[in-house]
Amino acid sequence: MKALIHTAPLKLEYRDVPDPLFGDDEVLVRVKAVAICGSDVHGYTGSTGRRIPPIIMGHEAGGIVEAIGRNVQNAAAGDRITFDSTVFCNQCPACRQGRVNLCANRKVLGVSTPAFHRDGAMAEYVVVPWWIIYRLPDAVSFEEAALIEPASVGLHAARITPVDVNDVVAVVGAGQIGLFAMQGARVKGAGKIVVLDVKEERLALARKLGADLTINPTSTDVTAEMQRVIGRPEADAVLEAVGTETTVTLALSLTKQGGDATLIGNVTPRIQVSLQDIVLRELTIRGSCAVAGEYRAALDLIASGRIQAKPMISRVMPLSKGQEAFDALHRGEPGLMKIVLQP
Ligand SMILES: [Zn+2]
Ligand SMILES: [Zn+2]
User: Fold this and answer.
1) Ligand 1 center to residue 232 CA distance, Å?
2) Which ligand is nearest to the CA of 61?
3) If you measure from the C-alpha of residue 207 to the centroid of ligand 2, how many angstroms do you get, rounded to a whole number?
4) Which ligand is nearest to the CA of 175?
5) Is the CA virtual torsion 335, 179, 51, 75 positive or negative?
6) b/e map of 274-293 (b: 16 or more CB within 10 Å)?
7) pTM summary value
């Protein structure tokens, strides 16, 4: 098969490799669309230690079942499917509680670390265990399926955050996760949604996807603007989808007394925050990691149009142009959100 192989820092090679073998519990998938994740772009620079070459990256994809192992009962050749980016073990205590995102033995597709290597979907075929696949509704395209993973990450964050009908929700960071978390908050009944980002083009996309108010905190006084437009300077719940000291501090400052802040981003490993802002205002802060079974809901919400994925796809390119696509994302070309590759 043809595959896009990450061979050295900043280098990708599109070439022939042996077809992957699959076991009794596994499904061979013909990949139709695979999206490039921010973590892939970060990873191919060689700085994260989580894409040790050679590795076929890609954990956000949609495709068609080509063949199944003898124990597989939930799929048949020809099925249109997507799959979880996390290969969880389905056996450990966390998995048995349904908290598969916290699986003790989890591996991520398309990731290689000193501890594990699992080839991903930037190839004509990928192999996944049967318990991580989900059938696609007819209304969901393969390109949209390639965005199910970030959609589910955003939906998970919204799901674990208390959001009541008509609440004010603020989202810090209008990248893809923030924009999906925002849409998830709307599904839960948020009345007013405020989105904050330093890039105007992202704020424009947030408005297109339903944000009631967008604010660039570098040029506007955030609380004054919230007070002016929605009549309150703070939000009932805040979703933080960046993960730097500046953005987390902003998120906590926007959370009302007794309110909830959910942290999704973790770009900066360690930050300083004001303990008094948290303790004396009795904030509840929680972390949100990956996806714990929200794929089905994300697929149905995209199929029904209540969550939109298509506006986030900036470009669709052939897999053979993978190097070009990665380089464009690495350069940070303006207006580029998501690139989907087609094998
Ligand atoms: Zn990803
Ligand atoms: Zn497990």
Assistant:
1) 34
2) 1
3) 39
4) 1
5) negative
6) eeeeeeebebebeebbbbbe
7) 0.95
Ligand 2: distance of its center to the CA of 330 in Å?
A: 33
Tokens at 343, concatenated? 């094998």
Q: What is the pLDDT along the chain (343 residues), one digit of tens a residue?
A: 999 999 999 999 999 999 999 999 999 999 999 999 999 999 999 988 999 999 999 999 999 999 999 999 999 999 999 999 999 999 999 999 999 999 999 999 999 999 999 999 999 999 999 999 999 999 999 999 999 999 999 999 999 999 999 999 999 999 999 999 999 999 999 999 999 999 999 999 999 999 999 999 999 999 999 999 999 999 999 999 999 999 999 999 999 999 999 999 988 889 999 999 999 999 999 999 999 999 999 999 999 999 999 999 999 999 999 999 999 999 999 889 999 999 9
Q: Is the dihedral of CA 134, 136, 137, 143 positive or negative?
A: positive
Distance 327 CA to ligand 2 centre (A): 35
Rg over CA atoms, the chain: 20
- Ligand nearest 38 Cα, by number? 1
Integer Cα distance of 190 and 236 in angstroms: 10
Query: What is the maximum alpha-carbon separation in the chain?
Result: 62
Distance 126 CA to ligand 2 centre (A): 21
